[in-house]
Amino acid sequence: MEEFIPNTETYTVPPSEPAPVEPIREPVRIMVTGSAIGIDLIIKVLHRLGFAEPRAWSKPQPDPTSGKFISIMTKWIRY
After folding, report:
1. 3-state class of 36 per DSSP?
2. What is the model's pLDDT at position 37?
3. What does residue 62 show for φ and ψ, rounded to 5 degrees?
């Protein structure tokens, strides 16, 4: 008479894929200060480098403390 050999292997369910983690988005402010002509030149150079569209920048505003102009933009980064 043959003996019954029980199945001793253990099967586990493969781990499921982890839920995709939402990338963290953070606003970063970039400020350029100087003369209106200098600011315009830097914005154009940054545009040529693919950094940001010129319309993304604020219009140059005079800084009451330094007398220079300031232009600001917000760049959203993901990590």
Report:
1. helix
2. 96
3. -70, 135
